[in-house]
Amino acid sequence: QSRLPGKFSEIGGMYPAHLLISQDELTAMVQRLGKQITEDYCGKQILLVSILKGSFIFCSDLVRAIDLPTTVEFMACSSYGGGTSSSGKVKIIKDLDCDIKDKHVILVEDIVDTGLTLSKLKEVLSLRHPASLKICTAFDKPVKRKVELHPEYVGIEVPDEFIIGYGLDYQNYYRNLSEIYAARPVEN
Ligand code: XMP
Ligand code: MG
Protein backbone atom coordinates (compact mmCIF):
# COMPACT_ATOMS: atom_id res chain seq x y z
CA GLN A 1 0.00 0.00 0.00
CA SER A 2 1.54 3.28 -1.09
CA ARG A 3 1.40 6.33 1.10
CA LEU A 4 1.18 9.61 -0.72
CA PRO A 5 3.56 12.47 0.02
CA GLY A 6 2.75 16.15 0.51
CA LYS A 7 -0.53 17.07 2.13
CA PHE A 8 -1.61 13.41 2.25
CA SER A 9 1.38 12.42 4.40
CA GLU A 10 1.06 10.51 7.63
CA ILE A 11 0.73 12.71 10.72
CA GLY A 12 0.99 11.29 14.23
CA GLY A 13 0.25 7.76 13.06
CA MET A 14 -2.89 8.72 11.11
CA TYR A 15 -3.47 9.28 7.41
CA PRO A 16 -6.35 10.06 5.00
CA ALA A 17 -7.29 6.45 4.31
CA HIS A 18 -10.57 6.63 2.48
CA LEU A 19 -12.32 9.25 0.35
CA LEU A 20 -15.77 9.92 1.81
CA ILE A 21 -17.02 13.13 0.14
CA SER A 22 -15.84 14.52 -3.19
CA GLN A 23 -15.27 18.15 -4.12
CA ASP A 24 -18.35 18.09 -6.36
CA GLU A 25 -20.52 16.91 -3.49
CA LEU A 26 -19.10 19.63 -1.25
CA THR A 27 -19.82 22.28 -3.87
CA ALA A 28 -23.40 21.06 -4.31
CA MET A 29 -23.90 20.99 -0.55
CA VAL A 30 -22.68 24.58 -0.12
CA GLN A 31 -24.83 25.85 -2.99
CA ARG A 32 -27.93 24.17 -1.55
CA LEU A 33 -27.36 25.65 1.92
CA GLY A 34 -26.60 29.11 0.53
CA LYS A 35 -29.79 29.09 -1.51
CA GLN A 36 -31.86 27.90 1.45
CA ILE A 37 -30.44 30.59 3.76
CA THR A 38 -30.95 33.25 1.08
CA GLU A 39 -34.63 32.27 0.82
CA ASP A 40 -35.23 31.92 4.56
CA TYR A 41 -33.75 35.33 5.42
CA CYS A 42 -35.09 37.17 2.38
CA GLY A 43 -35.17 40.96 3.01
CA LYS A 44 -32.92 40.71 6.09
CA GLN A 45 -29.27 41.25 6.88
CA ILE A 46 -27.43 38.38 8.52
CA LEU A 47 -24.31 37.75 10.58
CA LEU A 48 -22.35 34.55 10.10
CA VAL A 49 -20.33 33.51 13.13
CA SER A 50 -17.61 31.15 11.94
CA ILE A 51 -16.45 28.80 14.68
CA LEU A 52 -12.67 28.53 14.36
CA LYS A 53 -10.73 26.81 13.25
CA GLY A 54 -12.58 23.99 11.55
CA SER A 55 -15.25 26.04 9.77
CA PHE A 56 -13.03 28.59 8.06
CA ILE A 57 -13.08 26.93 4.64
CA PHE A 58 -16.76 25.99 4.75
CA CYS A 59 -17.67 29.51 5.89
CA SER A 60 -15.62 31.11 3.14
CA ASP A 61 -17.51 29.06 0.54
CA LEU A 62 -20.90 29.49 2.24
CA VAL A 63 -20.74 33.27 2.51
CA ARG A 64 -20.19 33.50 -1.26
CA ALA A 65 -23.23 31.29 -1.86
CA ILE A 66 -25.50 33.63 0.14
CA ASP A 67 -27.18 36.44 -1.78
CA LEU A 68 -27.95 38.75 1.15
CA PRO A 69 -26.19 41.62 2.95
CA THR A 70 -23.94 39.49 5.17
CA THR A 71 -21.20 40.12 7.72
CA VAL A 72 -18.79 37.51 9.09
CA GLU A 73 -17.27 37.32 12.56
CA PHE A 74 -15.17 34.69 14.28
CA MET A 75 -15.18 32.81 17.53
CA ALA A 76 -12.92 30.04 18.75
CA CYS A 77 -13.58 27.35 21.29
CA SER A 78 -12.06 24.00 22.12
CA SER A 79 -13.45 20.68 23.23
CA TYR A 80 -11.16 18.15 21.61
CA GLY A 81 -7.59 18.84 22.65
CA GLY A 82 -5.43 17.21 20.01
CA GLY A 83 -7.06 13.81 19.64
CA THR A 84 -10.07 12.30 17.98
CA SER A 85 -12.60 12.22 20.82
CA SER A 86 -14.45 14.99 22.62
CA SER A 87 -13.29 15.92 26.12
CA GLY A 88 -16.75 17.29 26.87
CA LYS A 89 -15.33 20.51 28.30
CA VAL A 90 -16.08 23.50 26.10
CA LYS A 91 -13.87 26.53 26.47
CA ILE A 92 -14.26 29.87 24.69
CA ILE A 93 -10.78 30.81 23.51
CA LYS A 94 -11.70 33.81 21.41
CA ASP A 95 -14.98 35.60 21.97
CA LEU A 96 -16.76 37.79 19.43
CA ASP A 97 -15.64 41.38 19.34
CA CYS A 98 -18.97 42.70 18.12
CA ASP A 99 -22.43 43.15 19.59
CA ILE A 100 -25.01 40.63 18.32
CA LYS A 101 -28.05 42.26 19.93
CA ASP A 102 -30.99 42.37 17.48
CA LYS A 103 -28.94 40.67 14.76
CA HIS A 104 -29.89 37.59 12.76
CA VAL A 105 -27.06 35.28 13.71
CA ILE A 106 -26.10 31.98 12.08
CA LEU A 107 -23.43 29.92 13.81
CA VAL A 108 -21.30 28.24 11.16
CA GLU A 109 -19.69 25.01 12.35
CA ASP A 110 -17.62 22.34 10.62
CA ILE A 111 -19.17 19.32 12.29
CA VAL A 112 -21.63 18.53 15.07
CA ASP A 113 -20.63 15.44 16.98
CA THR A 114 -21.67 15.16 20.64
CA GLY A 115 -23.40 18.54 20.28
CA LEU A 116 -21.74 19.85 23.44
CA THR A 117 -19.84 22.67 21.73
CA LEU A 118 -22.83 24.18 19.97
CA SER A 119 -25.32 23.75 22.78
CA LYS A 120 -22.92 25.61 25.04
CA LEU A 121 -22.32 28.33 22.42
CA LYS A 122 -26.05 28.70 21.78
CA GLU A 123 -26.63 29.14 25.48
CA VAL A 124 -23.92 31.81 25.79
CA LEU A 125 -24.95 33.74 22.67
CA SER A 126 -28.69 33.70 23.29
CA LEU A 127 -28.07 35.64 26.52
CA ARG A 128 -26.93 38.50 24.29
CA HIS A 129 -30.38 38.80 22.73
CA PRO A 130 -29.86 38.30 19.00
CA ALA A 131 -32.99 38.76 16.85
CA SER A 132 -32.56 35.10 15.90
CA LEU A 133 -29.94 32.40 16.36
CA LYS A 134 -29.59 29.36 14.13
CA ILE A 135 -26.95 26.75 13.39
CA CYS A 136 -25.50 25.82 10.04
CA THR A 137 -23.11 22.86 10.03
CA ALA A 138 -21.28 21.36 7.09
CA PHE A 139 -21.30 17.87 8.58
CA ASP A 140 -23.39 16.07 11.14
CA LYS A 141 -22.52 12.88 13.04
CA PRO A 142 -25.89 12.24 14.70
CA VAL A 143 -24.96 8.83 16.16
CA LYS A 144 -22.49 10.52 18.52
CA ARG A 145 -24.93 13.03 19.99
CA LYS A 146 -24.86 13.38 23.79
CA VAL A 147 -27.22 16.35 24.10
CA GLU A 148 -30.34 17.19 22.15
CA LEU A 149 -29.31 19.52 19.35
CA HIS A 150 -30.87 19.84 15.92
CA PRO A 151 -29.03 22.24 13.60
CA GLU A 152 -31.41 24.14 11.30
CA TYR A 153 -29.03 23.74 8.35
CA VAL A 154 -27.12 20.51 7.81
CA GLY A 155 -24.84 19.89 4.85
CA ILE A 156 -24.06 16.18 4.83
CA GLU A 157 -24.56 13.46 7.42
CA VAL A 158 -21.42 11.45 8.04
CA PRO A 159 -20.84 8.01 9.57
CA ASP A 160 -19.05 7.43 12.87
CA GLU A 161 -15.56 8.00 11.47
CA PHE A 162 -13.02 10.66 12.29
CA ILE A 163 -13.12 12.84 9.19
CA ILE A 164 -10.47 15.23 7.89
CA GLY A 165 -10.14 17.73 5.05
CA TYR A 166 -12.08 20.81 3.93
CA GLY A 167 -11.05 22.63 7.12
CA LEU A 168 -11.28 19.64 9.45
CA ASP A 169 -8.06 18.55 11.05
CA TYR A 170 -6.11 15.88 12.80
CA GLN A 171 -3.52 17.55 15.06
CA ASN A 172 -4.16 20.74 13.07
CA TYR A 173 -3.07 19.14 9.78
CA TYR A 174 -5.09 18.07 6.74
CA ARG A 175 -7.32 21.18 6.72
CA ASN A 176 -5.96 21.83 3.20
CA LEU A 177 -7.34 18.63 1.66
CA SER A 178 -10.04 19.59 -0.84
CA GLU A 179 -12.20 16.53 -0.15
CA ILE A 180 -13.34 14.77 3.01
CA TYR A 181 -11.44 11.63 4.03
CA ALA A 182 -11.76 9.13 6.85
CA ALA A 183 -8.61 9.30 8.97
CA ARG A 184 -7.31 5.90 10.02
CA PRO A 185 -4.20 4.68 11.83
CA VAL A 186 -1.36 3.53 9.61
CA GLU A 187 -0.65 -0.19 9.74
CA ASN A 188 2.95 -1.12 10.31
P1 XMP B 1 -18.97 18.32 19.62
O1 XMP B 1 -18.70 16.93 20.13
O2 XMP B 1 -18.89 19.33 20.73
O3 XMP B 1 -17.73 18.54 18.70
O4 XMP B 1 -20.24 18.39 18.83
C1 XMP B 1 -17.65 19.48 17.76
C2 XMP B 1 -16.20 19.74 17.44
O5 XMP B 1 -15.41 18.55 17.51
C3 XMP B 1 -14.55 18.44 16.43
N1 XMP B 1 -14.85 17.19 15.70
C4 XMP B 1 -14.17 16.73 14.65
N2 XMP B 1 -13.11 17.25 14.02
N3 XMP B 1 -13.13 15.42 12.53
C5 XMP B 1 -12.58 16.58 12.95
O6 XMP B 1 -11.62 17.04 12.35
C6 XMP B 1 -14.19 14.83 13.12
O7 XMP B 1 -14.64 13.76 12.69
C7 XMP B 1 -14.75 15.52 14.25
N4 XMP B 1 -15.78 15.27 15.07
C8 XMP B 1 -15.83 16.31 15.93
C9 XMP B 1 -14.80 19.65 15.58
O8 XMP B 1 -13.76 20.58 15.81
C10 XMP B 1 -16.10 20.21 16.02
O9 XMP B 1 -16.12 21.62 15.99
MG1 MG C 1 -11.00 20.33 15.20
Automatic annotation (TrEMBL):
Pathway: Purine metabolism; IMP biosynthesis via salvage pathway; IMP from hypoxanthine: step 1/1; Purine metabolism; GMP biosynthesis via salvage pathway; GMP from guanine: step 1/1. InterPro entries: HGPRT, Hxn_phspho_trans, PRTase-like, PRTase_dom. Its cofactor is Mg(2+). It is found in: Cytoplasm. Pfam families: Pribosyltran. SUPFAM superfamilies: PRTase-like. Its EC number is 2.4.2.8. It catalyses: IMP + diphosphate = hypoxanthine + 5-phospho-alpha-D-ribose 1-diphosphate; GMP + diphosphate = guanine + 5-phospho-alpha-D-ribose 1-diphosphate. GO terms for molecular function: glycosyltransferase activity. Keywords: Cytoplasm, Glycosyltransferase, Magnesium, Metal-binding, Nucleotide-binding, Purine salvage, Transferase. Residues 23-171 form the Phosphoribosyltransferase domain. Its main location: cytoplasm. Belongs to the purine/pyrimidine phosphoribosyltransferase family. Purine salvage pathway enzyme that catalyzes the transfer of the ribosyl-5-phosphate group from 5-phospho-alpha-D-ribose 1-diphosphate (PRPP) to the N9 position of the 6-oxopurines hypoxanthine and guanine to form the corresponding ribonucleotides IMP (inosine 5'-monophosphate) and GMP (guanosine 5'-monophosphate), with the release of PPi. This is Hypoxanthine phosphoribosyltransferase. It comes from Amygdalobacter indicium. The gene is hpt.
